[in-house]
Amino acid sequence: MKDQDQLLRSVHANQRKKKPPAAAIGKVLHGYLDRRTRQLKKNTDIVDIWKEAIPQQMYEHTRLVEIKAGMLTIETQPGPYMHEMQLMKTELIKYLQARCGLNKVKKIIIRPASKPANNTEENND
C-alpha cells in the first residue's frame, strides 16, 4: 500500500510542475515593437535617399521592393530603364554604402516590374 501511495504522490507531483509566470502582454508587445522599430529605422535610411541616388527620370520608373540580408530588390520598367539600372548597379551600391553604412546594401537585385511604378509626385494629392 505504501508503494502505491508513493507512486501516486510522485505522479501527482510531476503533474503539478509550476509553469513559468506569464509575461504581461503589454511588456511582450513593447519588446516586439521596439525590435521592429529599430529594424524599420535602419531600412528607412535607404528609402529616404533613394530619390537622390538616381536621376528623376529613373526614379519615376523604379520601385524599391525589399531590403533583406544586405540585398536591395528593385523593380523597374523593362527595356531601357532596366538596362540603365543594370549599368548603374555598382555605382548605386557604392553610393548607398557611403550614405547608409557599409553593411546595409551588399547586392542589388533588379527585376522587371509587373506594373508601372507610381513614384510621381503628382499622384500624392
Distance between the termini: 84 Å
CATH topology of the domain at 49-120: GMP Synthetase, Chain A, domain 3
Secondary-structure content class: alpha+beta
Q: Return the CATH class of the domain at 49-120.
A: Alpha Beta
Strand order of the largest sheet: 1-2-3
Order of helices and strands: HHHEEHE
Task: Report the major sheet.
Answer: 3 strands, mixed
Helix content: 40-55%
CATH architecture of the domain at 49-120: 2-Layer Sandwich
Question: How many strands in all?
Answer: 3
Polypeptide structure, described:
The protein is an alpha+beta fold and 125 residues long. It has a domain at 49-120: 2-Layer Sandwich (GMP Synthetase, Chain A, domain 3). 54% of the residues lie in helices and 15% in strands. It contains 4 helices and 3 strands. The protein has helices spanning 2-15, 25-53, 56-59, 80-100, and strands spanning 62-68, 71-76, 107-112. It has a 3-stranded mixed β-sheet with strand order 1-2-3, covered by helices on one side. Helix 4 links the parallel strand 2 (71-76) and strand 3. The model is unreliable at 121-125 (pLDDT under 50).
What are the key terms here?
single chain, 125 residues, alpha+beta, GMP Synthetase, Chain A, domain 3, three-stranded mixed sheet, 4 helices, 15% strand, elongated
Sum this structure up briefly.
54% of the residues lie in helices and 15% in strands. The protein has 125 residues and is α+β, with helices and mostly antiparallel strands.
List the helices and strands and how they pair.
Layout: H1 2-15, H2 25-53, H3 56-59, E1 62-68, E2 71-76, H4 80-100, E3 107-112
Parallel strand pairs: 2-3
Antiparallel strand pairs: 1-2
Helix pairs in contact: 2-4
